[in-house]
Amino acid sequence: MDNKSESCVRSTPVHGLDDKDNDSESFTDGGLRAWLVVLGAFFGLFVSFGWTNCVGVFQEYYETHQLASLSPGTVSWIPSLSIFTIFIAGPFVGHLFDHYGPKTLLLFGTTIHVFGLMMASVSSKYYQFILSQSICSPIGAAMVLYPSFSCTTTWFQRKCALAMGIVASGSSLGGVILPIMVNRLIPSVGFGWTMRICAFLMLGLLVITNLTVRSRLRPQPKNYDAGALIKSFKDVPFLLTAFAGFFYSMGMFVPITFLVTYGRSVGMSPQLAGYLVSMFNGASGVGRILPGYIADKVGNFNVSLCAACLSTTLVFALWLPSHSNAATMAFASLFGFSSGTYTAISPALVAQISDIHEIGLRSGTMYAFMSVAALTGSPVGGALITAANGSYWKLQIFTGVMLATGSMFYGASRLYLAKGKLWAKV
User: Fold this and answer.
1) Alpha-carbon separation of residue 303 from 5, 116, 348, 407 (angstroms)
2) Name one Pfam family in it (predicted).
3) Nearest Cα to Cα of residue 59 among 80, 83, 87
């Protein structure tokens, strides 16, 4: 691979743009301004994807409280639609980001995200949770998530995977702290005030995000249409990477959604089962920073492929055959580590195979493609639990097959970029 391919961002010159924007020397790869962007983006991920990582807590709570009369598959549409909304908003947010930059998006995203959570705090019916927690709040979260990632990639090149890993670890920290907050606050102050307290916390952190997250590049308005989205899939590396992300997402979000209910099914106490989400996200934080540092040394696609294979192995070798509390906690932690690597490095993969001025569109297109998997994976898992009379073995096999398919596409994209070389840095 040549130097362009090994860098985190493809710096191909674009006609009509200042060449210094594309010059690798213009990437600061550090400095106060760049690291302030990382700090703000870290908090942006904490309140956006970090909140989404709490889906397992709400799946279990709604099943046993407000929505106890509904099946697990029906309830799972709340978290799965939330993830779908965040992902499907990607192309639209990316388009707006390329046109106007991050400032307006972050401001509107903050307002909509917090408003959605406030509305969820007064919800009691199924459709109300769908509107507030699955549509309104995720739209705002998407307006925070994508600018946070995209702005970070404009400041870093050699250290891109490390910077992206630090930013992505914000969602892991959110996934550790927020479930514990929810579990501890609900018995004390009730569901409504728990949601409001979380919303006020996010508002405070988003003030920091709004003040610090900026792009190094000027906005470059372009007249994108549906054809521009389709054009991205004509690029073979992008197509293979998109399919890898699709199948991996189809499998990854199933354990996240049902971790708590699975823990209860194998005899865990409600308190211990509630901590599985925090265990998952705590390990995920390590999986987002350490492999990011390694990826800058050995290649983003190499690390992603290893992480995807590890996730597949954990499902078939640990989660499926074991049913003890210890095995469940071990799986939650190890799967959190491997899937955290996927979450952190995915934006770096897109940046590596994309022109820097198309990162907003390309990243959004990738996540929109993955949104279908995020939407359908958990409801399919819930249906498989029902079909197996409450057992989880069908869900586990489905998860493993999806992850294995994603791993094969990661392998194909890696081999394509390496031109068939097995030991190249890609």
Assistant:
1) 15, 36, 11, 11
2) MFS_1
3) 80
How far is it, in rounded angstroms, from Cα 10 to Cα 153?
11
| Distant-in-sequence, close-in-space partners of 204: CB < 8 Å, separation ≥ 6 | none
Residues found in the chain: 426
**Domain range enclosing 192:** 28-214+228-417
Q: Cα(32)–Cα(39) distance, rounded to whole angstroms?
A: 10
Instruction: List the structure tokens of 302.
Output: 């190499």
Q: What CATH number is associated with residue 143?
A: 1.20.1250.20
Distances (CA, A) of 3 to 25, 157, 170, 345, 353: 13, 11, 30, 19, 12
Residues 323, 318: Cα–Cα separation, whole Å: 9
CB 412 within 8 A of CB 284: no
Strand partners, 10: 355
pLDDT in tens, the chain (426 residues): 333 334 454 444 333 344 444 455 566 777 888 899 999 999 999 999 888 877 767 877 888 888 888 887 788 888 888 888 988 888 888 878 878 889 999 999 999 999 999 999 999 899 999 999 999 999 999 999 989 988 988 888 777 778 888 898 888 888 888 988 988 899 999 999 999 999 999 999 999 999 999 988 887 666 656 666 677 788 899 999 999 999 999 999 888 888 888 998 999 988 888 788 888 888 887 887 788 778 878 999 999 999 999 999 999 999 999 889 999 999 999 999 998 888 778 878 888 888 766 776 787 788 778 888 877 888 888 889 989 998 999 999 999 999 999 999 999 999 999 988 888 888
Burial state string for 298-312 with b = 16 or more CB within 10 A and e = fewer than 16: bbbbbbbbbbbbbbb
Q: Which candidate, 131, 122, 47, 68, places its Cα nearest to that of 261?
A: 68
Residue 105 lies in a domain: yes
Indicate whether 347 belongs to any domain: yes
Residue 337 falls inside a structural domain: yes
Residue 312 lies in a domain: yes
Number of domains in the chain: 1
Contact 193, 185 (CB under 8 A): yes
The answer to whether 258 and 55 are in contact (CB under 8 A) is no
Beta-carbon count within 10 A of 294 CB: 18
Query: 411-416 contacts: CB < 8 A, separation 24 or more?
Result: 411/305, 412/240, 412/244, 413/237, 413/240, 413/241, 413/244, 413/301, 414/301, 414/302, 414/304, 414/305, 416/236, 416/237, 416/240
